Amino acid sequence: MKSVVARSALLLLCGMTALPSTFAAVSTSTKWSATLPGTPSGSGTWTVSMGVYNAQGVLVRTLLRGAKVSPGTISGSWNGLNDAGLAMPTGAANPYTIKLAHHAIGYAWEGVIGNTSSSFDGSQVHSYMQPVSSIAISGSSAYLAAGYNEGQPGLSGFALSAPQQALRPFASTDAFASYAMVAADDDRLYWANTGGMAKSSFVGAFSRSTSLPVAFSSGQSTCLNYLSPGNCYPAQSYSGVIDVQSAASGSSVQQADGCLRQSSLGADGRRHVEPDRHVVCR
Fold first, then answer.
1. Distances from the Cα of 91 to the Cα of 26, 33, 212, angstroms
2. Tens digits of per-residue pLDDT, 227-236?
C-alpha cells in the first residue's frame, strides 16, 4: 500500500511585507492593515503568518500562524502583549515592526505508481511515508497505524469488503506525534503516540461512531509543542490521555542552592533542576 510519486508539480507564490514601518508598543492597541495581492493559484487563498518583532528582529508576538486568507485587505490590532501575555516596553526607544509572510504553495499530484489502491488519485488512495506498523480488525472494518505521515493522517483504515479503498475518518495529522499500536473494540479505536518530534508518549482513543477523540476517565492533559512556557499550541494539545511518558531534553548544568546541579528542558517547555543530581557543592 506504500505509494511512489511518479510526477508532481510545485506551485509557488510567496512574499514578505513589513507593515507599518515601525511603531512603539502602546497600552491599548496598535492597528494594522495589509492588502494581499491577486488571486493565488491552487485553492484561491493565501497561507499567511504574521508577527510583531522588536528592534533586534526577535519575534515577540504571533498574530497569525498558517492562516488561510482570501485576497484583499485584512486588518487587526496588537494589544502590546507578547506571546506569554506580558506587556512589552513602550516608548520611542522600543520600536516594533509587524511582518507578514504569505504564500500559495501546494503540490499538484499527477498520479502514482506501485500502488494497488482502486483509485488512481484522491482521498481513498493508500499513501504512507513509512510501512504500516500495526493493524486492528473489529467487525467489518480494519484500522492501521503508519507512524508519522507528513501532511496526511497517520491513522487510516478500510472496510474488509473494499481493502483497496482507504478510509481516513480520524484527525491524525499532528507532525509532533507518531501513530502506532492500534487496537479496537466495538466502540473505540485506541492508539499510542510513540514519540514523534515531541519525544513523548501516551495512549489516546477515538470514538468509532463519531470519529472524535474520547477522554479516558483517569486520563490527563499533555502538550507536544509549546508556543511559550505553559502555552500549548491547540493542534498539539491532548486531553484525557493515559500512560503519559514525557521525555526530558536539553540537559545542562547550572548553579542552584550552592551546588552545581543537572537541569533539563522538560516536555512542559520549562527548565527543571534535578535536586538529587549534583556535580559540585561548596
1. 8, 22, 48
2. 888 889 888 8
Give pLDDT tens digits for 12-52: 344 444 444 344 444 346 888 888 887 666 567 888 899 99
Whether 267 and 247 have beta carbons less than 8 Å apart is answered as yes
pTM over 0.90: no
Q: Output DSSP code: residue 75.
A: E
DSSP code for 176: T
Please, which pLDDT band fits residue 61 given cuts at 50, 70 and 90? Answer: very high
Residue 196: closest CA among 136, 255, 250, 130: 130
Q: Which cell numbers hold the place of 154?
A: 497517520
Beta strands (DSSP E) in 79-120 are 95-103, 106-109, 112-113
DSSP state of 17: E
**How far, in Å, are 1, 4, 125, 234 from residue 135 at the CA level?**
13, 22, 17, 28
Which residues, 6+ apart, have CB-to-CB distance to 122 below 8 Å? none
61 vs 243: CA distance, rounded Å: 34
Coil/strand/helix, residue 264: strand
Residue 147 CA: distances (Å) to CA of 25, 174, 242:
44, 11, 19
The kind and range of the H/E element at 59 are strand 59-69
Strand-pairing partners, residue 134, are: 145
Give how far Cα 89 sits from Cα of 27, 85, 276, Å. Answer: 10, 13, 39
